[in-house]
Every structure is written in C-alpha cells, then in structure tokens.
Specification:
Layout (H helix, E strand, L loop, with lengths): L5 H12 L12 H26 L6 H14 L7 H18 L7 H14 L5 H13 L8
Keywords: Signal
C-alpha cells in the first residue's frame, strides 16, 4: 500500500476549516464580537486556500504547503486565549518541515518517512490543535465537524 502523505496535513486543513464561521452566538461587547468574527473570517479564508492547494498537491509539494500554512498561522491575529495555541501549532508544522527537509517524497520510502515524521510530532492531535478546535466550535458558529 502506498503511503498517502497528503493525509498527514489534512488535520491542518481541519484546524483551519474550523473557522468557517457564521458569526458568534455569544453576547459580548461589539469589539469582542468583531474580533471573533474577524479571526473566524481569516481562518475561513486560510482554510479555503489550503484546501484548494492540497487538492492538487503532489507529495513533493507538501513540505512547502506546510511551511506556507505555518506562515499563514503566523499572520493570523488570534484572540488572546489562542495566542499560545496558534504559536504552538505553527511550531509543530515548522518542526515537521524541518524533519522532512531533504526527503525524496516522490518515492514510497520518502512518503513513509514523511508520514512517520507527521506521527512523531503529533500532527492533528496536539493539545494546541484541540484547544483551537474547542474554541472555534464554541465561538465560530459551531462550524467544527462532529466525529
């Protein structure tokens, strides 16, 4: 069976997709609501772009897409309670990019090494990713998928 390294970055798309917001249902100050809506909109846009890129990506493009995703995370202006989590997720993606630098992802061996590295860093299941998931579920119109 051929490894599918693209699946290793799908959790990133899922984390970003959680921002597909319809608006906050919480009552609060207009500034807080505006900040939440802005963050949700930014994340939705990043998610859409990443999903589009992943759809046509070759295995060789995955490290570059991860690096771009990390940069995108760095450009987001998360609410105060997510600043550390977003920074941790960004660091996780950079750790994976560093771990797979130089791999030949056109080979089954390189693809397996990529998948192994993604598993080692815990891609898709880090506490920071889970915290972002919880926050966006609660604040971005319940856009998170249920499992």
């Amino acid at each position: 069976m051929r490894p599918r390294p693209g699946l290793a970055v799908l959790p990133l798309a899922a984390v970003l997709a959680l921002g597909a917001c319809g608006g906050s249902t919480d009552e609060g100050s207009p500034t807080a609501d505006d900040d939440v809506q802005t963050f949700c909109s930014e994340v939705q846009q990043a998610s859409t772009e990443l999903a589009s890129q992943l759809a046509g990506a070759t295995p060789e493009q995955l490290p570059t897409l991860l690096q771009q995703a990390g940069a995108t995370l760095g450009e987001l202006d998360p609410p105060a309670e997510l600043v550390d989590d977003v920074a941790q997720v960004r660091a996780t993606y950079q750790q994976l990019v560093d771990a797979v630098a130089g791999l030949d992802l056109s080979t089954p061996e390189g693809q397996q090494a990529f998948s192994d590295a993604a598993g080692t860093v815990g891609l898709g299941s880090t506490p920071a990713e889970l915290a972002i998931d919880d926050w966006t579920t609660a604040n971005c119109g319940g856009a998170a998928p249920s499992s």
